[in-house]
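pasting for ref
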Amino acid sequence: MTSATDSPSPAAPRLIATDLDGTLLRDDKTVSDRTVAALAAAEEAGIEVFFVTGRPARWMDVVSDHVHGHGLAICANGAAVADLHADGKLVKVRPLEREIALDIVHTLRAATPGTSFAVELTTGIHYEPTYPPFHLDPGATVAIAEKLLHQETPGTGTPVLKLLAHHAEMTPDDFLALARTAAGHRASFTRSSPTALLEVSGPGVSKASTLALCCAERGISPAEVVAFGDMPNDVEMLRWAGTSYAMGNAHPAAIAAASGRTATNGDDGVAVVIERILAARRTPDAAR
């Protein structure tokens, strides 16, 4: 593990992939002027910038004013790719099959009594009566998960992006470990919240796997990618990228997965590294 200040950054990255909450965004969910300037400078230098987040496309307003270039963002932990130049229109969806989601609901209800669920569809979120309410989605349907996931005919209905599972008493990491043991062979389990809130995607769906698809379409190799993250849902991406940085405020799993470490999100850790990359392009000695 090395830091952003004592190790060389790649001299010629072609793409920067950054998480949002706890990484690019400050704790008040804003993007600092320094970070805005760094992102713009990177794209002006020919480096693509991908926002890679657990957020759904409809919650991307926090960075919509800072999108340049292609305007694509990987959302819902890799379950969707959204065009932020087209009001978040989804251009790629990697859904969780409803039958699998129902199986996971039944498995977790048995393994961890007291678990409540929400279902993130391409059109919005819906949740059970005991699930912590989403005040940002006042139009959500409230019903038991089995009803939310019901479909008259297999293969019909709005695609499911994520199943969310919340437990009021378990610790976040214990809940994640238990769920992976009970049903990890059926889907991808991760978390990004400080509470015991799990995010469940289709098998093999992650930030890393969707980022890999997007990079392959552009002829970009992992070695040409610099990634930033702070939570367990960033781990696969941090491992996949040729160069990666865990934030100073990162979860231990993210720190262990990254090849380097930068400052906290409150201290513009992403901008610190981008500025070094751009300085290295101008002056090779600056990378030392």
